[in-house]
Amino acid sequence: MSYFVVGLNNLKLRTTTHNLRLTFTQKTFVEETTDPGFHMNIFNLRPFDQLTNQHDVDETELFDKSSFPFYLNGRFCKTMLLTIIFIDVVGQVVTYEDVKTYKQGDDQSVFINVVLEDDQNRILATLWSELVDQIQHHLTESTDKPLIVVFQHMKAQKFRGNYSVRSCWYQTKIWINPTLPQSTEFKSRFLAVRQSNFERITQTSSQQSYSVRDELDKGIILFKTIRDLVQCTHECSYWIAAKLVNLELDRGWSYLACNKCTKKVDKVGTTYFCKKCNEEACYITHRYRLQVRVMDGTAFISLLLWNRDAMQLIGKSAKELKEGLVETSIGDADWSYPTELDDILYKKFMFKVIVKKKNIAKEMYDQSH
User: Fold this and answer.
1) pLDDT in tens, 307-355
2) CA-CA distance, 40 to 34, in Å (whole number)?
3) What CA–CA distance (Å, rounded) separates 313 from 85?
4) Cα separation of 215 and 238, whole Å?
5) In 185-318, where do the E strands start and end?
6) CB 325 within 8 A of CB 341
7) What mean pLDDT value characterizes the chain?
8) Which end of the chain is more exposed for a tag (fewer CB within 10 A), N or C?
């Protein structure tokens, strides 16, 4: 390549951490060449645990505060510029939501949320505009093979301490089930760990949601004390503020579920059978079914936390806890539970509680998503 301009890499969005960048001009000349010794690894793949585990996050590799000189009124000055460094990710798509439309004035764009999984962790990825069309039909295809994707030049974003990634205008590129060396190596490693028992793609609900503040301020959901809640005789949903004081583990804390319908599977010999699907469950995973006792100063109540709600409180999936559970030789393994569950004890939470006729008599309620 010849006839190009070398300048400071002071763009707000950067594809590399290098301090310099090359800029093409109308006179720039590029000639393709083949050199077996040239480094052809075009990706800077980031393992998900470096984003999902708070202690492993190095924000200097995601957001860089650089000092750049400039000339003003006859003197050199320096300015600090916060730049965003693009990252690349590879993983298997495990869930996705409906395509949504975002409107801003007269402009509107479409986007889709997908969840990627690597060896042990998951991360949310948001794709915008034409990238939605590129991936959408692959999500709805019925296949027994994992959907492996590589997303290049994604933007990391942090919300309430949690990281996700999103595409960024025209910089982001995606490869779907590619034969690139990096994706082939990932797929081999992934299937070796899963032993062909990978999780099939599922679609999650994308109903309109409100924040706790919106639901309370607008009167969409009323707030009640537990004493008032247990006196309700009609079906409805309410918000309560309560301290979680006990784990009621008589029936365990998780269950083996069919990946297709999320219902409990039964073990028949060496296989598992799903009554809901009326077939042998080839793909299963652990999901939360955690019963807890909470109080608010007026009364006690038992709540049943299902998978999504429990995962929001604990911060890890049931599958992660099950895999990391170290069984001891003391006691029955069926009654053991991971110590991470103790981390939510004696903490105060807001719970949206569903009152149903079947719950009223036994005073044990489901928590709503």
Assistant:
1) 888 988 998 888 888 888 754 433 444 557 899 999 999 999 999 888 8
2) 11
3) 30
4) 10
5) 202-203, 222-223, 236-248, 254-258, 266-268, 271-274, 279-280, 284-295, 300-306
6) no
7) 78
8) N
- In DSSP notation, 128-195 reads ETHHHHHHHHHHH---SS--EEEEEEEEEEEETTEEEEE--TTT-EEEES---HHHHHHHHHHHHHHT
316's CB contacts (< 8 A; 6+ apart) are: 340
Q: Could you give phi then psi for residue 214, rounded to 5 degrees?
A: -60, -45
What would the DSSP string read from start to end of 306-338? EHHHHHHHHSS-HHHHHHH----SSS-GGG---
Q: Which residue has the higher pLDDT, 362 or 88?
A: 88
Question: Hey, what amino acid is at 30?
Answer: V
CB atoms under 10 Å from CB of 23, counted, come to 9
Contact 171, 256 (CB under 8 A): no
H or E stretch covering 101: strand 100-104
Cα 314 from Cα 256, distance rounded (Å): 19
DSSP structural state of residue 264: B
Question: How many Cα atoms are found within 13 Å in the side-chain-facing hemisphere of 110?
Answer: 12
φ/ψ of residue 167, rounded to 5: -75, 160
Contact criterion met (CB below 8 Å) for 42 and 20: no
Joined together, the tokens standing for residue 128 give 């915008």
User: Which two three-digit tokens encode residue 129?
Assistant: 């505009």
